[in-house]
Specification:
The complex is a heterodimer of chains A (about 160) and B (about 170). With about 160 residues, chain A is mainly β. Chain A is built from three helices and twelve strands. Chain B has a single domain, classed as OB fold (Dihydrolipoamide Acetyltransferase, E2P) (Beta Barrel). Classes of the chains: A mainly beta (about 160), B alpha+beta (about 170).
Amino acid sequence: MSGTAGTKAKESAAPTALQMLFFEVAGKAFALDLVLVDRVIEALAPVRTPRRPAFVDGVIEDRGRYLAVFNLRRRFGLPEPGRSHTAIVLLRGLDLDPLIGLTVDRVLQVLSVAPDVILTPPPRVFGIRAEYLHGVANISGWPVVWLDIAKVLTTTEPMTLLQ
Amino acid sequence: MNGRQLVKAQGRSRGAAPAAAREKVLLFRIGEAVYGIGIGGLWEVLPLDGVTGLPTPPHQVCTSLAYRGRTLPLIRLPELFEASGTAVPPSARVLLIHALGRPLGLLVDEVLEMTDIDPRRIGSVPSAATQLSPAFFRGIVRDSDRVVILLNGDGLAGMADVAAFDA
């Protein structure tokens, strides 16, 4: 008990690093909170579902479950297919189904990021309005956009990623 | 095999031993996707002869089916699913089902085959994957090398367009 209390006290004194998954869409780097990420799997051809939302590709089967797959290129108004659709990030904890898939061009890496590296975004980043972003950062010289992925996927406002 | 023979043949096999509780499902195509419906409520598979009111696009979802002197509602699944081509293909058929205590026609692009599924392996259609009512779907299931979306006849029979047909 005392050890736990001590750890908590230490955490409150020094901000905890954010664990983030970095990935690429149309040559730009984006980040997601790792807490939302269940797993990353290879891209699968989805089963097309009837009258699906504009940026949903369909359904994939994963470990006996069926998941809706969202396509981030299409959400960003980009032509398809992208350079490569090599990965589906499985996300949980969004205000959608218990688990969904998110198709991205390429998964880059998982990194711990100090909170003070994250900056408040300007009104638009790559054409995306700030209300869809948690922040921006410069990671090893790369501009990275931390997406509010729940908001990105649960709203229907058109978006256009500037290239 | 025509549709009526197919249903009769499968109806006989239903009386056999319950082979590991598997269930007969009729597979059909709408657009490029494969769907299925349990044969429990399936009466007949009909050619398009008796279908009336098949206008050129844009089509309405619910139209009429002339069947043995009666006029029945017909749900045009390609329109409902937004998988409609420019014309009704020659392969199109009507599945005559009995749902919610009434006969109902379902227009499909092509009848494929009968298959067996394990009902225990039926999963839910993710709500985020479609804008249609979940009541229209019984679930989703793997059938060897493909995944099939199973329709729920009662859910389709309960849709507002069918109620409006009766009004």
